[in-house]
Automatic annotation (TrEMBL), chain A:
Residues 69-257 form the ABC transmembrane type-1 domain. InterPro entries: MetI-like, MetI-like_sf. It comes from Oryzicola mucosus. This is ABC transporter permease. It is a multi-pass membrane protein.
TrEMBL record, chain B:
This is ABC transporter ATP-binding protein. One of its GO terms (cellular component) is ATP-binding cassette (ABC) transporter complex. It comes from Oryzicola mucosus. Residues 6-236 form the ABC transporter domain. GO terms for molecular function: ATP binding; ATP hydrolysis activity; transmembrane transporter activity. InterPro entries: AAA+_ATPase, ABC_SmlMolc_Importer, ABC_transporter-like_ATP-bd, ABC_transporter-like_CS, Mo/tungstate-bd_C_term_dom, P-loop_NTPase, Transp-assoc_OB_typ2. GO terms for biological process: quaternary ammonium group transport. The lineage of its organism: Bacteria, Pseudomonadati, Pseudomonadota, Alphaproteobacteria, Hyphomicrobiales.
Length: 266, 356
């Protein structure tokens, strides 16, 4: 190895220090919000003067919080399913297809990743206003699908590219129809890519706020929108509790992702 | 006349302006081991892929037992194939890989289990059922692929350079396995390779591919002793070509002059190409003397290489053309021979060939 950590001498303590500072920089806000959610002060004072679970019981007692969480979950779940299905067929087309402008098309599919979200949100808002989809479940799903699909296409087509098509050909010669070969051989072989697509699609929708603010109506709000709206009205630690739960779910999903990925690879 | 088991009739394959296969005609007997031998891009793999049904020919037909195969999709052709790359299904165990074609055919479970066992025994991998492909060596994976391809008793087994990813020693080991399995199952095998030694070792007959056509079909000894074209002569065995002058030709024999010496009664092959006449000599069929003799080619030693039981003497004729001689180790003519020495090389007319 070019850089041997053991041979760095005093430099390795400097490196260690930098690493710790970076980790703190990344983690402090999260630790901060989690600590506040257990703090007894109503004014989000740090460090908290005492500890309480009051904000969590407030949160769980408020049907508006629960309903927005449920809305978020439903949207994310539908987006996940659609994103994986569309990502799958799109990836097959992009990876296996032999047509003009294939690369251009692939780049086009990834543009939502680099486009400023607020631009996309305004565009979708204006468009949905015309066709009456604002504030509807369908509108939410479609707009989040636009954001989630690039991740799905990227991870599935990467997996598909690394999969040797001869294996699918072998399945066909074994007597499986081309569709059967894809379902019984190709899909299991690229399952890690499909799984990443699902997780990232879910997370993209689950914690998305910008587009969601444009899409939401008083009766249809996702959890991040509810957090944002509550913050603007009154600065209650219930927001911190909600955020902590959001973070917790994300962490659980990521851990699950890492575990399953490890399982799929071995 | 009986219908041939497998017949390839005038297959041609074009990819846009590129002609991958020009015109391939071939008849294969049941139970035969036939190898397609040729360099990459000679059309041998394309022909195999057309047989497998992954590609349709631009023209021509393939008939199995007198009936065309082209109308049948790959999955219904019942053909077995072992690929160049490892194509075991990565998420399935060895046993499930072999069972796959049988499950697709919806055979009853006890029949599948019995067949998987039989196949594992055939490729000598008993006890490996539960391994995943990633836990096996390349050679073992190809043996499982072979078992999978034979599990449904295909009439024809296609093999597309299945050993090219393996090292030499393992390759020879599996070549023996393939021969044994061929003898045991009596399946008809079409085997693609660019390795002449592999082709000679395995096949009943060899079809030498060059530029999209079959130059010659025959047994190894036939191709070696009687190459129809310069290409076949170069591809089967080692050979050198000396430009020569045609003095006389009749009844497939020629009299030629090379470097002042005249050789008569040499087998002649009219290739129809205007490359000029050339005399083909094989290094192992040449004799070497240190004294000038009649009817011999004068040459200068340019290098001597010890190859175990053989010694390879590279020489250069008076006109500067390279000409190699291979002699058994300890041959009296080469004791004390060194670079720059003059030698005289002779051969029997019947062992040489003139291509005109």
């Amino acid at each position: 190895m070019l850089l041997n950590f053991e041979r760095l001498g005093w430099l390795k303590y400097v490196l260690l220090g930098i690493t710790l500072l970076t980790a703190l920089f990344l983690l402090l806000p999260i630790i901060f919000i989690a600590a506040l959610s257990f703090g007894s002060s109503q004014w989000l004072i740090f460090p908290p003067p005492g500890w309480t679970l009051k904000w969590y019981s407030d949160l769980l007692a408020d049907p508006r919080w629960l309903s927005s969480a449920w809305t978020s979950f439903r949207i994310a779940a539908i987006v996940t399913v659609l994103s994986v299905l569309l990502g799958l067929v799109t990836s097959f087309g992009l990876v296996r297809g032999r047509f003009l402008f294939r690369k251009t098309l692939r780049a086009l599919f990834l543009t939502p990743m680099i486009l400023p979200v607020v631009v996309l949100a305004v565009a979708l808002y204006a468009f949905f206003l015309k066709i009456g989809l604002n504030g509807t479940m369908t509108g939410f799903v479609i707009s989040h699908l636009v954001l989630a699909l690039p991740f799905s296409i990227l991870s599935i087509s990467n997996a598909l590219e690394r999969f040797d098509k001869s294996i699918e050909d072998a399945a066909v010669l074994c007597g499986a129809s081309p569709l059967e070969a894809k379902i019984r051989v190709t899909l299991p072989a690229i399952s890690h890519g499909i799984f990443s697509a699902a997780i990232f699609s879910f997370l993209t929708s689950w914690d998305e706020v910008v587009v969601a603010i444009f899409m939401s109506s008083p009766t249809l709000q996702t959890l991040p929108v509810k957090v944002w709206a509550t913050l603007r009205q009154d600065l209650t630690p219930v927001v911190a509790a909600a955020s902590t739960l959001l973070i917790l779910l994300t962490v659980i999903l990521m851990a699950l992702f890492a575990l399953v990925r490890k399982g799929l690879k071995s | 006349m009986t219908t041939p088991f497998l017949k390839i009739e005038g297959i041609r394959k074009e990819y846009g302006p590129v002609v991958a296969v020009q015109d391939v005609n071939l008849e294969v007997e049941r139970g035969e081991f036939l190898t397609f031998l040729g360099p990459s891009g000679s059309g041998k793999s394309t022909t195999l892929y057309i047989l497998a049904g992954f590609d349709n020919p631009t023209r021509g037909d393939i008939k199995l037992n007198g009936k065309t195969l082209l109308a049948t999709p790959s999955q219904k052709r019942n053909i077995g194939m072992v690929f160049q790359r490892y194509t075991l299904f990565p998420h399935l165990s060895v046993g499930d890989n072999i069972a796959f074609p049988l499950k697709v055919r919806r055979l009853p479970k006890h029949q599948i289990d019995a067949k998987v066992k039989e196949m594992l025994r055939l490729v000598r991998l008993e006890g490996f059922e539960d391994r995943k492909p990633a836990q096996m060596s390349g050679g073992q994976q190809q043996r499982v692929a072979l078992a999978r391809a034979l599990a449904y008793d295909p009439p024809v087994l296609l093999m597309d350079e299945p050993l090219s990813a393996l090292d030499k020693k393992l390759r020879e080991e599996i070549q023996h396995e393939i021969r044994r399995i061929h003898q045991q199952t009596e399946v008809t095998i079409l085997y693609v390779t660019h390795d002449q030694e592999e082709a000679l070792r395995l096949s009943d007959r060899i079809a030498v591919f060059s530029k999209g056509v079959i130059d010659q079909i025959g047994t190894g000894p036939e191709l070696y002793a009687n190459p129809a074209t310069r290409f076949v002569a170069q591809f089967i065995g080692d050979s050198d070509f000396l430009p020569c002058q045609m003095l006389h030709s009749a009844n497939g024999r020629a009299t030629v002059s090379v470097g002042g010496a005249v050789f008569s009664d040499v087998p002649l092959h009219e290739t129809g190409k205007s490359e000029g006449a050339a005399l083909m000599l094989r290094p192992e069929r040449l004799s070497l003397t240190r004294e000038p003799l009649q009817q011999r080619l004068a040459a200068t030693v340019s290098d001597i290489t010890f190859l175990g039981n053989n010694v390879h003497v590279a020489t250069s004729t008076l006109s500067g053309d390279p000409l190699s001689v291979r002699l058994p180790f300890g041959h009296p003519a080469i004791s004390g021979l060194s670079r720059g020495d003059s030698v005289w090389l002779g051969f029997e007319a019947a062992s040489a060939h003139v291509f005109n």
